[in-house]
């Protein structure tokens, strides 16, 4: 028996494994392979656990990495924008940082936690 055979009816190659011929399938290569940041990794984990169909579709189309990079960029932009807007609305300035560093750290930490929660709700776990 041949190790590999080609089926002209469907255009697939098959490999002999044991007594069976298994199709030789590969995933399409993605155009760009940019690194995925923290937000993209969180969304990837969410897709794998709770949105298997979406994950599988993106993976087999070869668009998963680009999609995750886009989510990561959106989340990072949203995080920066939310931090600036919340700090301005609550009157947290550089002057407060000079006068009372511990209060500034406490309030900025609180803002970051709220911003992360908003991003998780609207982008990552949606």
Question: What do you see in this structure?
Answer:
The protein is rod-shaped. It folds into two domains: 1-30, no CATH class; 31-124, no CATH class. A hairpin with a 4-residue loop joins strand 1 (4-7) and strand 2 (12-17). It is mainly alpha-helical and 126 residues long. The mean pLDDT is 93. The protein has helices spanning 38-50, 52-61, 64-89, 94-99, 101-124; strands at residues 4-7, 12-17, 20-23. Helix 1 (38-50) crosses helix 2, helix 1 crosses helix 3 and helix 3 packs antiparallel against helix 5 (101-124). The termini are far apart.
Count of discrete structural domains: 2
N→C terminal distance: 50 Å
Proportion of residues in extended strands: 5-15%
Order of helices and strands: EEEHHHHH
Widest sheet, order of strands: 1-2-3
User: What do the pLDDT scores average to?
Assistant: 93
Q: Please count the helical segments.
A: 5
| Main sheet record | 3 strands, antiparallel
The number of distinct β-strands equals 3
- Which blocks of ≥5 consecutive residues have pLDDT under 50? none
Q: Structural class, judged by helices and strands?
A: mainly alpha
Rg (CA only): 24 Å
Shape: rod-shaped
Q: Classify the helix fraction into a percent range.
A: 55-70%
Write the layout of secondary structure elements.
Elements: E1 4-7, E2 12-17, E3 20-23, H1 38-50, H2 52-61, H3 64-89, H4 94-99, H5 101-124
Antiparallel strand pairs: 1-2, 2-3
Helix pairs in contact: 1-2, 1-3, 3-5
């Amino acid at each position: 028996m041949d190790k590999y055979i080609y089926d002209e009816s469907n255009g697939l190659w098959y490999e002999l494994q044991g007594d069976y011929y298994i199709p030789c399938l590969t995933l399409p290569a993605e155009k760009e392979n940019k690194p995925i940041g923290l937000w993209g990794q969180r969304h990837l984990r969410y897709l794998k656990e709770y949105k298997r169909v979406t994950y599988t579709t993106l993976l087999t189309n070869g668009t998963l990495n680009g999609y995750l990079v886009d989510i990561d960029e959106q989340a990072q932009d949203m995080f920066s924008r939310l931090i600036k807007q919340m700090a301005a609305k609550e009157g947290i300035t550089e002057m407060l940082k000079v006068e009372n560093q511990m209060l500034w750290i406490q309030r900025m930490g609180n803002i970051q936690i709220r911003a992360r929660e908003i991003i998780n709700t609207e982008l990552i776990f949606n």
